[in-house]
Design brief:
CATH superfamily of the largest domain: Diaminopimelate Epimerase, Chain A, domain 1
Shape: globular
Number of strands: 18
Structural class: alpha+beta
Helix content: 10-25%
CATH topology of the largest domain: Diaminopimelate Epimerase, Chain A, domain 1
Strand content: 35-45%
Radius of gyration: 18 Å
Order of helices and strands: EEHEEEHEEEEHEEHHEEEHEEEE
Distance between the termini: 34 Å
Oligomer: single chain
């Protein structure tokens, strides 16, 4: 008997658009090394592992190379699947425990609302290596818990970016989020997200980055409700609402594939990894994403 696993496209209603994530539904925790091997096998930007916990579900997120504390699009995918499987009632608020703390998800018709912690950026001085790697000079440069926010003036320049990924990989950030105001009246701002240091050259749609983008653009646009578009080759739309120290993200999701994962016991790809699941205390791991 294997484990149920799904491929879900998020922040879209069209298959093969938005940001794909794998969701593996477990009955109990598994070894970190095993989960890392499954994520490597799925070869998507993130794989979420969900298992029941008192009052809700525990979520862990992995790229192909490392565990991350929060993945907005993978959390969205996990909520979509848990409701699809009737593991949770779509009429009730879904409680999700992550390494960054508790999240909630709400089913709103075809949309899913995620309640995430805001992560406003702190300004920082230009980094010559970053400017050179992106090839565009910023009008604002800031830092969130783990990412750089790099704001430029031109939508044309944002869409044309071809960054030096090897250079970005050497910088001390999980990822670099490049953003600008939108020239399309349907959207308030655009972004692209590069994370080669985390094994993702360009993330198609990055939910967690909007925990920083929301506070930044909300202050400058004088808005609490915004619509964003991530201008990757797949593209995706995110609605967001600022609510104090929280950011409410709204996105849609569509299931592409479902299967039975037969690799239940072995994990040869990462033999040196810690074999235990670390469940943080209320003070642990909150300061970094």
């Amino acid at each position: 008997m294997g484990h149920l696993i799904y491929h879900v496209d998020t922040f879209t209603t069209e298959r093969f658009r938005g940001n794909p994530a794998a969701v593996c539904v477990l009955q109990e925790p598994r070894e970190i090394a095993w989960m890392q091997c499954v994520a490597q096998e799925m070869n998507l930007s993130e794989t979420a592992f969900a298992w029941p916990e008192e009052g809700g579900f525990r979520l862990h997120f992995f790229t192909t190379t490392t565990e991350v504390k929060l993945s907005g699009h993978a959390a969205l995918a996990a909520a979509h699947i848990l409701w699809q499987l009737d593991r949770a009632r779509s009429t009730e608020r879904l409680q999700l425990q992550t390494r960054l703390g508790p999240l909630t998800a709400v089913h709103c018709g075809t949309w899913i609302e995620l309640d995430l912690p805001a992560d406003p950026p702190e300004p920082m001085a230009p980094i010559p290596a970053l400017v050179q790697a992106l090839g565009a000079y910023p009008c604002y440069l800031g830092r969130s818990r783990v990412d750089a926010l790099y704001v430029i003036d031109s939508e044309k320049d944002l869409r044309a970016l071809e960054p030096d990924l090897d250079a970005l990989r050497k910088l001390p950030f999980r990822g670099i989020c490049v953003s600008c105001r939108s020239e399309d009246p349907r959207y308030d701002f655009l972004s692209r997200f590069f994370a080669p240091a985390s094994g993702i050259d360009e993330d198609p749609v990055t939910g967690s980055a909007h925990c920083t983008l929301g506070p930044y653009w909300g202050e400058r646009l004088g808005k609490t409700d915004m619509v964003a578009f991530q201008a990757s080759s797949r593209g995706g739309t995110i609605r967001l609402k600022l609510d104090g120290d929280r950011v409410i993200l709204k996105g849609e999701a569509v299931t592409v594939l479902r299967g039975d994962l037969l690799a239940t016991g072995e994990f040869p790809c990462a033999p040196d990894m810690d074999q235990t699941i670390h469940i943080p205390s209320s003070e642990d791991d909150r300061g970094t994403a």
